[in-house]
Amino acid sequence: MKIINSTTRPINNVHYICMHIGGSPVTCYVINGRNGDLLIDTGFYFCCDRLRKWLGQFNIRHILLTHAHVDHDYNAAKLRKITGAQILLSENDVSLIGNYRSQPVKATMKKYRLRNIQQNVCGGMKLFSTRPYSPDIIIKNQDSGILRSLGYDADIIPLPGHTLGSLGVLADNVLYCGDAFTAIWGRPDITPHATSLKAMRRSLKRILKISPKWLATGHGLPVSMDKARPVIIKYLKERSRI
Ligand SMILES: [Zn+2]
Questions:
Q1: CA 178 / ligand 1 centre spacing (Å)
Q2: Distance 159 CA to ligand 1 centre (A)
Q3: What does the pLDDT look like over 148-201, one tens digit per residue?
Q4: Distance 71 CA to ligand 1 centre (A)
Q5: Does position 99 have pLDDT exceeding 70, yes or no?
Q6: Are 52 and 77 in contact (CB under 8 A)?
Q7: Where are the domains of the chain?
Q8: What is the mean pLDDT of the chain?
Q9: Is 22 exposed, middle or buried (0-12, 13-18, 19+ CB in 10 A)?
């Protein structure tokens, strides 16, 4: 497993750990708050030990899941037990916990059709399912200010599409966007799968409108918006949505 973290390669002031397995990166982030720290996403099962070690330098009080896919929420309950942190998840992803097929995904481009079939097959397998857990704080669509009330200079940005409850966090000109956008292949790219293509396009437009300096995605290293913007515009234009 290859590990790159914010100490080995600083990017802006973003705290991240990017864990590669089989050439596929999974990335988790930490935002510092007034009363403790916020972990964004928890990675897949192979990430747990490395992630725990990295988290030793922080005081994790909250764990925000950008969505309830196994490669983001697998370690959430375990880390809650270790740290005592509270888990935050969108209300629209609660029924997705450990139940991938409750929100089947579609390919965002023709070239991902085969990969999409694999995703839906694997997603239904126990090996690729998170054990059920209950979030402590369920985020409703109107709860954008909840992180401020918990002591973070950050806002929740709903970014539905990849899943119905996908959300991002905007802090210090960085949009932690989960799988609403990706850098999984080492460059800014459109996420290959979405539960709702229409909602995903709307969320991409929202990202353009917010125009943060950095996009910190759930897979790969943070990418600058200057590099991501043309990729998003091209995708939306090809679908005549801009
Ligand atoms: Zn996902």
A1: 7
A2: 12
A3: 999 999 999 999 999 999 999 999 999 999 999 999 999 999 999 999 999 999
A4: 7
A5: yes
A6: no
A7: 2-92+100-238
A8: 94
A9: exposed
Is the CB of residue 1 less than 8 Å from the CB of residue 20? yes
Q: Is it true that domain 2-92+100-238 has CATH number 3.50.50.60? A: no
Structural element, H or E, at residue 49: helix 48-55
Query: In 3D, which of 210, 214, 208, 209 has the Cα closest to residue 230?
Result: 208
Cα(191) to ligand 1 centroid in Å equals 9
pLDDT in tens, 187-226: 999 999 999 999 999 999 999 999 999 999 999 999 999 9
Write down the pTM of the prediction: 0.96
Q: Token pair 């930490």 is at which residue?
A: 30
Query: In the numeric block, which tokens belong to residue 227?
Result: 């590099």
Angle at 199 between CA 108 and CA 165, to 5 degrees: 105
Parallel, antiparallel or unpaired: strands 37-40 and 24-32: antiparallel
Token pair for residue 188? 């800014």
Ligand 1 centre distance from Cα of residue 145 (Å) = 24
Cα of 36 vs centre of ligand 1, distance in Å, is 27
Nearby residues of 147 by Cβ (< 8 Å), 6 or more positions away = 38, 64, 154, 155, 156, 169
**CB proximity list for 21: less than 8 A, separation 6 or greater:** 1, 44, 46
Q: Which two tokens stand for residue 224?
A: 């600058």
